[in-house]
Amino acid sequence: MNIGDKIKEQRLKKELTQEQLSDLLNVSRSTVSSWEVGRNYPDLETIVAISNLFGISLDNLLREDTEMAKDLSKKVKWNKYYKRILIVIGILAVIYVGFNGKLRMDEQRYLKNLAAHSWKQDDYKYAGSYALKEADVLYSTYILETGFNPIPLSERHPWVIARKGKLVVEVKEGNKRYVIIAKDNDPSVTYGATVEVDEAGNGIKNDPSWSKEKEESLKAYLKKYQKEYTELLKETVRKRKEVIS
Predict the structure, then answer these.
(1) Helix axis angle, 44-54 to 66-116, nearest 10°
(2) Which residues form the HTH cro/C1-type domain (predicted)?
(3) Which pairs from 97-104 meet CB under 8 Å and 24+ separation?
């Protein structure tokens, strides 16, 4: 006997019409009818209500109805699956809100520090750009606006570029130092590249694609202006610290 037959049997024992039973269970009469003819099944909550109403155990109500048991088992599994999805989505939402809040606080701190150290907005180049001129050195930086952005976290922290005549350096997150050698800055340059250097201005990373001739040329250029690069990088690190502190 399937669950539809048992519902009908118990309804008749209680001398209830389909309409009366539907009122007691807060469903439509057609829904009760579809249960009794086996077109569909009650949901889990309604099955519990039927069990309580008729005073029979869930085991007796569901016994022998293998299709109903399979359907109920499937629904229980899907409910657990959806709950897990909702939990994961909730956790991700909390992480996103917290992370975004941290980025917004950082952004406001950077902007406050820029104003305190007399940096000026430089939007004629691009939005979020700031510049500071001191003696013969021009410093520039960029503050990334908070919000959805594909730029990696490591690139979200402000960098500072310093230009002194034909010499250009950059300081990034972790005080990583770079020397930018380019024909646009110095027409006498044979090979252009961005070279990571240490505090003393010595190259510490070489691109495997560089030819031996290019590598030697870049080393010679760094050596020629090593003192100037060292001083400029030292000051640029200080400027970046002022921005992010």
Answers:
(1) 130
(2) 7-61
(3) 100/146, 100/147, 103/146, 103/156, 104/146
Mapped onto helix, strand or coil, the DSSP state of residue 196 is strand
Is residue 65 within 8 A of residue 59, CB to CB? The reply is: no
Q: Mean pLDDT, to the nearest integer, of 81-100?
A: 78
Quick: pLDDT tens for 189-237. Answer: 999 999 999 999 999 877 888 999 999 999 999 999 999 999 999 999 9
The answer to whether the beta carbons of residues 160 and 141 sit under 8 Å apart is yes
* Element (DSSP H or E) covering residue 172: strand 167-172
Tell me how far apart the alpha carbons of residues 32 and 28 are, in angstroms, rounded to a whole number.
7
Give the CATH architecture of domain 3-64: Orthogonal Bundle (1.10)
The model scores a pTM over 0.70: no
- 157 touches 173 (CB < 8 A): yes
